[in-house]
Amino acid sequence: MGVARVGMARVGVAAAAALTGGGAGLAAELVWAGRRPLPEFPDIDVSGVVPASAPSGKPPLRVVVLGDSTLTGPGLAAPEDIWLRQAIRRLRLRRAVCVVSLAVGGSRVSDVAARVDEAAVLKPDLAVVAVGSNDVIRGVPVQTLARKLGSVVDSLLDAAPVVAAANMGDLGNVLRFPAPLNIVLHMRSRQAARAIGATIERRRRAVLLDVTRSNPAFRDPGVFVADRFHPNAAGHAAWADSALPGMRLAFDRLFTGHSSPG
């Protein structure tokens, strides 16, 4: 299926409609473009243990993750390549970290909300959430996305001492969405990132993982796998770079409030 040919005048109207919540037609075009017949890759389970930097004699910290393909790494060679595992390794913590993943590719915020109770049963020390891109692509109003994500974070905070939530990078950089559709995705994802940031800042025990710092890296077509949608190991490394300050803050808060890192 080829990319839809859309006149620039129509794009301007559609972009305005999308940004004001009335872009159902444009959202359909985005989904259509997103389902082009390209290679498909299975989800990877990011679950596993990241060893401590040195023996501590303490049990591993449990990190429960929920979200979309941001956390399942389609097209990667191994779970160690996923940004979350990369970031935790770089922190060189004195406690081992056991990552337990409930993430599923294609998830929206409502899908994540349906698994919060499952996450709570796992008694996480830290919960990590990365979701929202599929909502943006499918035209969910940004404020609706942010409100639902806030509810997810609130519910997770009832079960975990600290919650770290990612915003989203510039979806206009995704190769699968060429001009003019990428223009709308650029605007919508930028709005969503701001709304998510504001949502997290209002919650004292929540930490923002600001992946917008990686936007310049994703202007390089070489950071995508063959499906032209998901990042390769280099793209995940860029996400890890961006998320690292937030991950460090999340663990610092966890150690300060509940244990010592030593």
UniProtKB/TrEMBL annotation:
<feature type="domain" description="SGNH hydrolase-type esterase">
    <location>
        <begin position="65"/>
        <end position="238"/>
    </location>
</feature>
<dbReference type="Pfam" id="PF13472">
    <property type="entry name" value="Lipase_GDSL_2"/>
</dbReference>
<protein>
    <recommendedName>
        <fullName>SGNH hydrolase-type esterase domain-containing protein</fullName>
    </recommendedName>
</protein>
<dbReference type="GO" id="GO:0004622">
    <property type="term" value="F:phosphatidylcholine lysophospholipase activity"/>
</dbReference>
<dbReference type="InterPro" id="IPR051532">
    <property type="entry name" value="Ester_Hydrolysis_Enzymes"/>
</dbReference>
<dbReference type="InterPro" id="IPR013830">
    <property type="entry name" value="SGNH_hydro"/>
</dbReference>
<dbReference type="InterPro" id="IPR036514">
    <property type="entry name" value="SGNH_hydro_sf"/>
</dbReference>
